[in-house]
């Protein structure tokens, strides 16, 4: 199997698992939808977390 086919297969399986989880747990899906809507007000918190992760990788020790 080529790397491209393996990558496509892994993506398709991940998407299928995501859809199955959304069908199996509708309350979790509703919570995620609510959290995504609330990101309109908390976008700065997501931005600070992303900058923190970037800085952690940028300033890590190199061998």
Which tags fit this structure?
single chain, mainly alpha, 3 helices, flat
What does the model show?
The protein has 63 residues and is mainly α. The protein has one domain. It is built from 3 helices and no strands. The chain has helices spanning 3-24, 26-38, 43-58. The chain is flat and about 40 Å long. The two termini are 35 Å apart. The mean pLDDT is 87.
Please sum up the structure shown.
With 63 residues, the chain is mainly α. Helices cover 81% and strands 0% of the residues. It has helices at residues 3-24, 26-38, 43-58.
Instruction: Look at the helices and sheets and give the structural class.
Output: mainly alpha
Q: Major beta sheet, specifics?
A: none
Strand content: under 5%
Q: Report the radius of gyration as a whole number of Å.
A: 18 Å
Instruction: Please bin the fraction of helical residues.
Output: over 70%
- Return the domain count: 1
Global morphology: flat
Mean pLDDT: 87
Q: Uncertain regions: pLDDT < 50 for 5+ in a row?
A: none
Summed up, the helix count is: 3
State the end-to-end distance: 35 Å
The string of secondary-structure elements, in order, is HHH
Question: How many strands?
Answer: 0
